[in-house]
Structures are given as structure tokens and as C-alpha cells.
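Please, structure for the following, as C-alpha cells.
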Amino acid sequence: MPILDPFSLEFFSKSGEQTRRLGTRLGSALLVGDVICLAGDLGSGKTTFTQGIAKGWGSLDVVTSPTFVIVNQYKKPEGTILHHMDASGALVIEWPDRIKAALPEEYLWIDLTWVDEFQRRMVFTPVGDHYRSLLTAFRQKAFGG
């Protein structure tokens, strides 16, 4: 396993519910226009994490995998939209490695890895100053200190 840079964060989630709660913390820190890239194989927890992101962001919509729909949208009651896509630039992008050349200069990259039936490894890597600040705020919300 590579050594993480000082701006990255590694976390081992022990359950789907913990993955969702962590997503909720991140979702509550997001601003309109933020780009979150979720990389990982099928079953690594991308959609579960996005369920939490949408909840923390303020959406009341049900979150499902975009794998076969391409784009899902989740609305806040006042009308702003969180876009959840498989392979196109938006807020939450699954399989971002497929469009890496099209990504903006700054984003938050999250690698999710299936460890076992209950455990997922998550590595958060900010690209750019804004996402370093976002990760710092997220770390505070999720873990205190």
C-alpha cells in the first residue's frame, strides 16, 4: 500500500451504515459546483457513500446506482440539484478514471475498495486548495479535533 501524502485521508468503514454516515458528513460540507470523484470496483460502496452525500447535502430523494441510467438527479426542497453520474463531469462522478482528461483542474478523488463483506477502505485525496480545505472541514465534521 502506498504512503499517503499529508493532505490525504484513509478510513476503513465497517458497515454500509457507517459508509452512509461518512457520506452525510461530506455532503453537509459541499458547495454547489464541487466535484467528487468516486473510484472503485462494483460493490466497493460508491452508491452507498453517495446515499449519505445526498442526505447530508439536503436531498430527500432516494439514491440509486447510476450504472445503467447514466444520470440520477436528487433535488433539495428549494430546487437545487445534485447530479450523480457514471461518466460525465458533475458533482458526484462514479468511474471517473474513464473521463480523467475531462475532469476540472480541482476535485476530491475518493478511492473505495472492497475489503470484505462488511469492510470498505476509503482513501480521500484532494486535488487543489479548495478540496484540501473541504477535506479539512470534512475531517473535522467526521472525526472532530
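The chain has one domain: 9-143. The chain is about 25% helix and 25% strand.
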